[in-house]
Specification:
The protein has helices spanning 7-29, 34-48, 55-72, 79-94, 101-117, 124-205, 210-234, 256-265, 283-303, 338-349; strands at residues 269-275, 308-315, 319-327, 353-358, 363-371. By secondary structure, the chain is α+β, with helices and mostly antiparallel strands. The longest helix has 82 residues, at 124-205.
């Protein structure tokens, strides 16, 4: 825990606290040689301040400085044992491989040597005590090190997953924009082709049929305005590098019944409701509306639990509304949200809006609104 402290203070907080505890304990016991013992404890604590920067050397020296006094007054002062436990714990947590065992071996050897120096035989109680001083902190340090490494791996995997999801999302958006650009390219090619034909007709009629020529010129003007509107949207998208020309767009909501019939033949029961005329929509809105219904029914075919879906398409003077509902199975989209991303990209081109939600009775509801600008004649 950092408690909001600067790094240097955080590293010093625990050793200083242990030094204060050791000082209070020694002053309370009033043992012989208290001054020397205090100096040893504070030297060890000072070394442990550097435990993060130099874990192996700082902790080894701190432990060896403490060993002899710990053995000498083990029955009286306990704070040095805490300082030694911190050193052992830090070695296990901060030092990897066999190097972490070197200080532990030195600590154990020094403890046993200290007992021998006291000129008394070692018994089982001494062995248990020595093991309890060194081994549990070491084991706990290993556990914390393992948890730290696992957390680092999980963080790396999470970061990799986020990057992968973002890459997939961008690729899906790019692919959808490319398809939109291709379709709008076809629309513009169709409009320009119509303008050329009408202009040629106007030239032939200008002398012998002035009214017919005027009507043909009006057609050219209207087609030109529609093409300019679609071009403005096209310039905001990725250009189709294939540069495929189409003389007329093949898809549109006027073929909505054919689309629904295909899904019915695939096993999806579709309830279709159409309000308003769909044969005079702006070309870009027409194709995008068709693609939105197609994507939504594809999701319903894959994931609707009852294999049923309802589609309502409503055309008003200013907006085209598309609503699709189906009973959900916990998966809202066929590609982890990529289909919805594609729909959103299409609708954003026209300044529309896409909403989707899961109702309380378990139905997935999707609503798309596409403004009719420029308005179809």
């Amino acid at each position: 825990m950092g408690w909001g402290l600067p790094p240097a203070l955080r590293e010093a907080a625990v050793p200083v606290t242990l030094g204060v505890v050791a000082t209070a304990e020694l002053l309370a016991l009033d043992l012989p040689g208290t001054g020397a013992a205090l100096a040893i404890d504070w030297i060890a604590c000072a070394l442990l301040v550097l435990r993060r920067r130099f874990p192996l050397s700082a902790c080894t020296l701190a432990g060896l400085v403490l060993i002899t006094p710990v053995v000498g007054r083990v029955d009286d002062a306990a704070a040095p044992i805490l300082i030694l436990a911190l050193a052992t714990f830090t070695v296990a947590r901060r030092v990897s491989g066999l190097r972490a065992l070197m200080p532990i071996v030195l600590f154990l050897a020094a403890l046993f040597w200290g007992y021998l120096r006291l000129d008394r035989p070692l018994d089982v109680a001494d062995l248990v005590f020595v093991s309890a001083v060194v081994l549990p902190p070491y084991a706990f340090g290993l556990l914390m090190r393992s948890l730290d490494e696992r957390n680092v791996r999980l963080a790396e995997q999470a970061e990799l997953l986020v990057r992968h999801q973002e890459m997939v999302r961008r690729e899906a958006i790019a692919a959808e924009r490319t398809r939109i650009a291709r379709e709008l390219h076809d629309i513009i090619a169709h409009s320009v082709s119509a303008m050329v034909v009408q202009a040629a007709a106007a030239r032939d009629l200008v002398r012998r049929d002035a009214d017919g020529a005027e009507a043909a010129i009006d057609e050219v003007t209207t087609a030109g305005r529609e093409a300019l509107g679609e071009t403005g949207r096209l310039l905001r998208l990725i250009r189709d590098t294939d540069d495929e020309l189409g003389l007329a767009p093949e898809l549109g909501l006027d073929r909505l019944h054919d689309l629904v019939d295909r899904f019915r033949r695939s096993g999806l029961q579709v309830d279709l409701t159409v309000e308003g005329r769909l044969d005079t929509l702006p070309s870009g809105v027409d194709i995008s509306g068709y693609r939105i219904v197609q994507e939504a029914l594809t999701n319903a075919l894959r994931y609707a639990t009852d294999h049923m879906a309802s589609v309502r398409v409503t055309r008003s003077p200013t907006v085209l509304l598309i609503g699709i509902e189906n009973r959900a199975s916990g998966v809202a989209d066929s590609a982890g949200g990529l289909g919805l991303l594609g729909m959103a990209e299409r609708i954003a081109v026209f300044g529309g809006r896409l909403t989707h939600s899961l109702t309380d009775d378990g139905r997935f509801v999707l609503t798309a609104s596409l403004p009719l600008v420029p308005e179809a004649r």
